[in-house]
Design brief:
The protein is of the alpha/beta class. Helices cover 43% and strands 16% of the residues.
């Protein structure tokens, strides 16, 4: 018999959905029913999300200065809030938890107005716009990188770390084994929902500058946009190298676990998963990210020595080629980076967040959790 229902709300990108998925598994293990509110973009993740039901409510971004567009967005949000009220009245959740993105605004606003216990989780080192809108209304804020002291909402903020999915916990069991000269070298490249286009151009060029013996060692997994597939595939065929190119990989955690080096953006979930699995990485923060949150996320892991951070404007194909050459010829350096990254990982973040959810749902204080995720 279920202990009750917990309603999770998340925007439809992996950065929002993945930590919500990790919490959902923990709540299901503890005997709760879990429902998810999201948008249509999350369909690619829905197959693995352990929700009893997945709901889509109207939502909109208030990003335009055009009065008509602002009015339209507000109308959509109001419609979404009405739909969320009906949903909450029907499923009667013990708690509503938001993970950022504008699809979280209607259900969290409805929950706070109805007196339903609520909290948000912020994955990034800089709070996103949707969570900023909700921060004053919710009872608690859990943070992947947010500080508990000195922040705008420090009295109700707990640094939990970012929950990672079971697939990531499984991949973390695989020890890092450096690739010695003449052995295959697994390079994993991905850019998230934004920013993959840059890697589609830079990586093939950088690889073409490598000496043939190094190129022949490379085994590449690269996420590319559908419109870049043929270009990247033709380059890898011309260079006669092993490559797995696709717009999306459902087994990315396993691929990261098999990697000798990762080249990627620095979204919060990505940074947290790299740390838990313990893999060396070159992080290239997405330069157009709002509030430069990716740069802040990258800096948090770079401080441990587990990753190297390079601005996109500075990472020419020539420089990337030099980095790859050095990485492939200095396995002991990558092994040290892998160990440093793993030491910074927080594999128990999902359990801590689940503890907080139960406390909020039961009307208890969160003060007992302060410092628990440090």
């Amino acid at each position: 018999m279920s202990k009750g229902t917990i309603l999770l709300a998340a925007g439809g990108t992996g950065g929002h959905v993945f930590p919500a998925e990790a919490l959902a598994y923990k709540l299901k293990e503890r005997g709760y029913s879990v429902h998810l509110v999201t948008d249509s973009r999350a369909e690619r993740y829905a197959g693995k999300f352990p929700a009893d039901e997945i709901h889509v409510v109207p939502s909109a971004t208030i990003g335009s200065k055009n009065p008509l567009k602002v009015a339209g967005a507000l109308l959509t949000l109001w419609t979404g809030m009405r739909a969320a009220r009906k949903l909450i009245n029907r499923i009667k959740p013990l708690c509503v938890v938001g993970f950022g993105g504008y699809p979280t605004v209607p259900p969290l606003l409805a929950a706070t107005r109805m007196g339903v216990p609520s909290m948000i989780h912020e994955q990034n080192a800089v709070m996103g716009r949707a969570n900023k809108m909700l921060a004053t209304r919710v009872r608690a804020i859990a943070g992947g990188f947010l500080v508990e002291d000195g922040g705008a909402f420090s009295e109700k903020t707990v640094t939990t770390g970012n929950p990672v999915r079971p697939a990531v916990i499984e991949a973390a069991k695989r020890p890092y084994v450096p690739s010695v000269p003449d052995d295959p070298f697994n390079l994993v490249v991905f850019g998230g929902s934004q920013g993959a286009q840059y890697f589609s151009k830079a990586v093939p060029t950088a690889i073409s500058l490598l000496e043939e013996p190094l190129r022949k060692r490379l085994r590449i997994t690269q996420q590319v946009r559908p419109e870049d597939m043929e270009t990247v595939n033709s380059c890898t065929r011309r260079l006669e190298m092993g490559a797995d190119i696709a717009p999306f990989f459902t087994d990315m955690a396993e691929r990261i676990g098999a990697a000798h080096l990762v080249l990627c953006r620095s979204g919060a979930s990505t940074v947290s998963e790299l740390a838990v699995i313990g893999r060396p990485a070159i992080l290239v923060p997405y330069p157009h990210a709002l509030d430069h949150d990716q740069a802040a996320n990258a800096a948090a892991l770079a401080a441990t020595g587990g990753v190297k951070v390079i601005a996109q404007s500075e990472l020419t194909p020539e420089k990337l080629s030099t980095i790859l050459r050095g990485s492939m010829t200095m396995p002991e350096k990558l092994a040290k980076m892998a160990a440093a990254a793993k030491q910074a990982g927080k594999p128990d973040a999902a359990n801590l967040l689940a503890d907080m959810v139960e406390a909020i749902a039961g009307g208890r204080s969160i003060q007992q959790f302060k410092g628990a995720g440090a």
